[in-house]
Amino acid sequence: MFRLGYKLSRFHSAVNNSSSKILNHECPFCKNTNSHFSRLFLQENYQNANISGRVYLSTHIGLCENLKKKKKKKAIIGEYENLIQIGNKNSNTRLERRAKIKKSSPANTLKQFGVTPSLFKKETRDPSSSLAKEKEHASEISKFKRTTTDFSLIAADDTGFIDAQLDNITELNEQIEQEFEVERATAKQQQQQQQQQQQTNKNMVVDKSSGKMKIPTRENDLKNRLEKNLIAFLDVCVHNNMIQQAFDTLRLYHMKHSDVGKPLSDVRLYNCVLEAYALNGNTKQLFRLFELMKFGKVTPNLQSYVYWLEGAYRASEFDKIGAILNKINSNKLNIYNLLTECTFVRNQLEIVLKAIRLKIPDFNPVKPKKPSGYVCKLLQDLNGDKPRERFSNPLGEQLSQQNFQNFRKQQIDVEKAGFMKIRRIDTQSPVDEKTKKLRNQLEEWESTWKSTMLRSYNQRIAFLRSEANYKNSKRTDLLPYLTCLKPDVIVDLMIREFRTIAQFSDSFSPVMMVLHRYFGCKIMDRYHLNRKIQNGIYEQTIKMYDDYSAYISDRKLTSQHISREYWELLKEKYVEKPDIGIRNIDWPTYVLIGVGKFLYEIMHKDMKFDENLLSETKTKKEGKRIRSAIYTAYRKHDHVKFREEIKPNPHLSEFYRLCKPENIFFDANVLPMLCPPIPWTSAENGGYIFAHTNLIRQAGITIKHQLDRLNQRSIQNLYPCIDALTTLGETPWIVNSRVLDVAMSIFNDKGCEELSIPRPISEYPELHKLEIHATKKETAKKVMENIRLKQLRSEMYSLWCDMLYKLSIANAFRDKVMWFPHNLDFRGRVYPVPPHFNHIGNDVCRGILLFAKGEPLGEKGFDWLKIHLINLTGLKKRSSLKERLEYCNEILHEIVDSADKPLTGNGWWKKSDEPWQTLACCMEIAKILKSPDPSTYVCHFPVHQDGSCNGLQHYAALGRDVEGAEQVNLMPSLLPQDVYSRVAEKVEEIRKLDAVDGIEISKLLEGHISRKVVKQPVMTTVYGVTRYGARQQIVRQLKEIPSFSRDQDFKAASYLVVNVFSSLETMFSATKKIQEWFTKSANLISIITKKPVEWVTPIGLPVVQPYLLVKAVTTTKDKKPVIRMEELPVTRKQTNGFPPNYIHSLDSTHMMLTALFCQREGVTFASVHDCFWTHPSTVAKMNKICREQFVALHNEPLLELLSKFFVEKYCGSDRDTNVFISENGISQKKLNDLRKLLMAVPSKGSFDVNKVLKSTYFFS
């Protein structure tokens, strides 16, 4: 729909500069005239509308739908070029032309005009074009080439414009050729239509209960998609007070689909409009809607009758209330289930209760009550009455009640505004005159852009409204979505959007459709917030959060209820108030893209600047050099030849960098919270107070199957996952100011790459200047070097900006307590929602963060802190805990020196594997040494316990692999086992034998096989790394060895990767068998069933692999081609992705179990996947819980349960085989082969997983 639209912005400058005379001409294909287009421009208040119409007509022909049909490349260009000659011919009479104007389709005009991306009905193409006409056009081409072009229709300044349009037509050729391919494919598929119809009839299954044929699932999906899109449109119309349009649109689609025997069946469509009329007390329209539902055989639910009751009461038609109640009873609905089956906003419930009590004075509805407790077997111990331990102040010692209330208000204000201004840490104080001048110029431009875009936005919206009135369309379009916010709010969002774009690096330019969709999402989120304010949900949420704040700081309450349980109690308390759990209605993807595209076109057209003002070195000319602030470019992508991308004007981007705006604008949902997140109570509700938070991180069509599975499961099955997310989000954090000051000092002092602080772009060499007299070889060398430098500068600028964001956010939250709301990826792995600054970030971020809640070190806390310091350095990986502690005591002088003089001392901390966390730990130890009693010192420092190659630990436990368990510390031992060193030793043994046999490459590798060389391939083999990927990893490590020959890197890596994989197969034999079973199972599932691989984690989270290819398939229906979208699994990704994804889901399950049991024991807990954090004093307690939960998890028959799930899901073991085969189109042989493989669970070894309980180095 939008592919050929919105071309107008590319020639607006030519439109405004043209000044030649106008002749009345028409498109030879759709018969629209330039006068017709002039009228459209006139409605948009163009001063030279006639010339605009003429210029647009020339482009219109290149975009004409009729022109595109079955036209070859030469004919297309010929018809366009031939238009230039038409100006010398006489036109038809004015009366005939006026008649043609009346017959012209406004919908077609608007679609070509590109201003209103509406859902117009696809027009029937004109079949009058013939081969003879094409030959005539071909002759015009040759005639045109032999003569000089007559530019009587085009002003002299428009020659560039015409060239641009010729380029546009050439650009369309590929799209047209693709249409030819579709038409040819359609012709072939028409021959197979009868066979397809027969197959469809076979696939239709008889419903034994009703004896009726079920509609194929694919048709249901299309219908459900239509109803979902229509609900979003009706909701926006009602919000914009366009109630009559909502009713007309609903009636149109209702009648249209009822006529073909497929009426709209989703009662929510009708309820959406019923709610609007109920609020206005319009009982006449309420009655009409119920009649419409009756005609379409749509059964009203209790919510529908509740709206009728509300409308009757508001209209003071009390005599109708009794009849409505009788209707409810006759439809076998229970009015006492009012609170459990209906949702209410504003004062709806109050009105409805008054209405009912007029007839039933003692009416009291049943109050809803959600089930409590866990159904998961692994969490039955948490269902007891044992009180949960909590510290005296869960908010942390730094946060008083008064401060907490102030921060809560700040958080609400930030989320209401949608953004937060944060001061940059690299700004100079005071600002020099040059920077001040640049900032003033930028403010002037932004002010001009705001007024210009506001005027343009209002003109375009007025144009859309006038065309909608002229057409009197009752179909869905974008106008309600574009007007759901105030114009000034939209323009402010556009300015902030451009600020973000202007800071892109030179090498980065996002795909246009991605940006359009992202910007459309921002508009939608603001709309949802406005809806909450309008419906009273905003005020009710604040009131409930005030009560929740009291719970957080009350030790007694927090020991009696977990957060989710208490939040549900608050909802029961305010059951007669607006329901804050009402789910937002998301806009369809095409709407998000359309809205973003509409607004980006305004930015493209109206954001101009004078290029002469950007540089003082250039000579300023008398005239202005006006340039667009953004432009589009085409870049090659995988599987697609070119994609259109958006880039900021490079001169303007440089200007933004030079003026260094004082503040950075961050969206509210990318920053830490100043108060605890709202507990997760369902898949839709949790996280930020008002800013929308997705439970599953990945959005879009590829994740919809998993969301469907989540909605199909009972909420009680999701309690373990959402409670774990709430637990992790409740951990408060503070900024380590001393470490932050050191990081900021190095950042502002040109950075330090050795300490992961990137240098500014000014510190990198400039591009080489090409000399005229240089040889070709010298020029080519400089060009290649410039390409490398340009890429390097671009990459380092991106890293520098990333660090600027991290440190600026940390500085803004320096004296505040903060929380990180959490969510999941599709595998169940947990991540903080704020992307820039969090504890999962790099070493700098982790070194800056501390627990807000401190705890006395106790007897063993100081020892654990010292051991943690040595772990961070990476110096004693093969040593025992006792040896690490002794080593720390030996180097206390270096630790104190690093703490007291981080930049001027010996710099011992800089040599660590994790220097910033090491520096933070040195500072903490130095403070403890100065305290009179270390055991009473209140410590805020987090200590980590990291799994020993955690993926292999899960594989070894799954296969009960004795040798593998020993290598990854599942078995008790006096010293920690290092699987990476063990693999390096085995490879070295093989190398020595090969060297004796005279293999040359093995001799070259002597002395170069180390733990570091083989670590990455070993670590990633569990996650499905291929031999090619492992070889590349080894090549990178060999390049860092100065003494190794560079020309032997590839050969040596190829040799090593074979030996690394063979060593792993020897050491982890059971692991290899399980991995092969995973791979073969996923491969057959995706090939035979044409479905994605899915499973359920041990704590109840459904997982669906999102590796799908959305493909357009053309079929025929009623002798007409129909294009439908079909989702097919990408077999290679489904196959390679399943083994690592399943293991990731297990390590996530283990982490969540540990988090929930730590909460019960009052242990502060945070995690970075398989690395668990807690206070030094509670390390021992957390270690015990961690081991107990790993053993409990792997004492379950995980592989057998997975096999059973696969067989039931993909082979239909509990169902009639014939029915399953007919429903899924699978042959009996393939089904038997699949069942046989899925039931062939690999055999296991003899390892006793309970030994993990006594393993010191399992997590250490």
Automatic annotation (TrEMBL):
Which Pfam family is an annotated match for this chain, by its short name? RPOL_N
Name one cellular component (GO) term. mitochondrial DNA-directed RNA polymerase complex
For the DNA-directed RNA polymerase N-terminal domain, which residue ranges apply? 409-730
Keywords (A to Z) from UniProt: DNA-directed RNA polymerase, Nucleotidyltransferase, Transcription, Transferase, Transit peptide
Q: Which top EC class is named for this enzyme in its record? A: transferase
Enzyme Commission number, as recorded: 2.7.7.6
Biased region (Basic and acidic residues) positions are 120-139
Which terms in the Gene Ontology molecular function aspect does this entry carry? Answer: DNA-directed RNA polymerase activity; mitochondrial promoter sequence-specific DNA binding
| PPR repeat windows | 266-300
Q: Name one GO biological process term.
A: mitochondrial transcription
Output the PANTHER family linked to this UniProt entry.
DNA-DIRECTED RNA POLYMERASE, MITOCHONDRIAL
Q: What does this protein do?
A: DNA-dependent RNA polymerase catalyzes the transcription of DNA into RNA using the four ribonucleoside triphosphates as substrates.
Which family does the entry's similarity section mention?
A: Belongs to the phage and mitochondrial RNA polymerase family.
Report the protein name in the record.
DNA-directed RNA polymerase
